[in-house]
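ok trying again, last paste got cut off:
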Amino acid sequence: VKLVESGGGLVQPGESLNLTCAASGFTFVNYGLSWYRQAPGKERKLIAVIGDDSRTSYSNSVKGRFTISRDNAENTVYLQMNSLKSEDTAVYYCIVVVSLTRTWGQGIQVTVSS
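nice, full thing came through this time. structure:
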């Protein structure tokens, strides 16, 4: 199982970014995936989940601004982040649980700063 995040970077407040998580090594269509983030000096927190049926849920901190989606043909999960705020600055991780084993991507830095 392998997850590779991309699409991070430095943006100004109010701008948007679209993170990508490319998955391999498992039957993607059968699994839900999640996005977590870890801000400097804080614990890692769950922010968005997409089920194998494409149902979604979000933490209150990102609801209405972030959208998680998936492309089963491309084995990819996306996190569209709009109206970014300085408090969204964090390392973002994609994760999946396969056969009771949680696999994390390497993480991608998102910095929101003027």
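cool. The chain has no helices and eleven strands. The mean pLDDT is 97.
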